[in-house]
Design a protein that fits this description.
Layout: H1 6-24, H2 29-82, H3 87-112, H4 120-127, H5 134-144, H6 152-167, H7 173-193, H8 202-221
Helix pairs in contact: 1-2, 3-6, 3-7, 4-5, 6-7, 6-8, 7-8
Length: 230
């Protein structure tokens, strides 16, 4: 594809009327030649001046802009990287972390507690309560058995599913350890209900051990280290 030169296009558009005028006045050849020469002499310097002046005017401005903009950007970036984190962002992060910890502690108090039928401890106590009839004790014993709804396996799975949902499957080792700490606080809350960790039902102590073992595996898979809480 050929490129149209604006200078040539303008010049040709000027020549056409001149040629027609020359054809109408056939005998008068010299004026026709002068009319051709005049536009060429007049137009060419103008086009050259226009071509020369436009880049000259724009180039320094573009150069100055290209030089100053990265400098300003780099300076701004350096300030962002160099200054401490925004206190408001830190407060928001702390509130989010505290919210997660509170949610985990509430879950464990409900899942392991002794005050209502939603808690493992409540059914564990019924399983050993001799004041209940055989059918009631048998029901409780089935629920806290290994394959029961309040047994070690299913209770551990529910708590760990909740913990993973809180921090995400791609959690960092630090996030996993923070969640482990929150779960431990939940167990501490439940232990206080029973007068100490050693007074927890055996099924609850076994659940604690199983959960901490899963945290070890989770941390190891994320590149962290095992820090099981006794």
């Amino acid at each position: 594809m050929s490129t149209i030169n604006p200078a040539q296009s303008s010049y040709n558009s000027y020549q056409v009327p001149a040629a027609q005028t020359s054809a109408a006045q056939a005998p008068v050849a010299p004026p026709a030649d002068n009319s051709h020469a005049a536009p060429q002499d007049t137009y060419t310097p103008s086009a050259a001046a226009s071509t020369t002046s436009t880049p000259a005017a724009s180039t320094p401005a573009a150069s100055a802009s290209a030089t100053s903009t990265p400098a300003a950007t780099n300076s701004a970036n350096q300030n962002v990287r160099g200054r401490p984190a925004d206190p408001a962002s830190i407060r928001n992060l702390m509130r989010e972390t505290n919210h997660q910890v509170d949610a985990v502690r509430r879950l464990l108090s409900s899942a392991l507690g002794r005050t209502d039928p939603t808690g493992q401890g409540w059914w564990a106590q019924r399983a050993e309560n001799l004041q209940l009839n055989d059918a009631e004790r048998a029901e409780a014993q089935a629920l806290v058995a290994e394959d029961g709804f309040f047994g070690v396996s299913q209770t551990t799975d529910r708590i760990m599913d909740f913990a993973r949902a809180m921090v995400g499957q791609n959690a960092s080792p630090d996030q996993i350890e923070e969640m482990r700490s929150a779960v431990q606080r939940g167990f501490d809350d439940v232990a206080r209900m029973f007068g100490g960790f050693d007074n927890l039902p055996q099924v609850t102590r076994d659940t604690h051990a199983a959960i901490m073992a899963q945290f070890d595996d989770w941390a190891a898979s994320a590149g962290g280290s095992a820090t099981t809480t006794e």
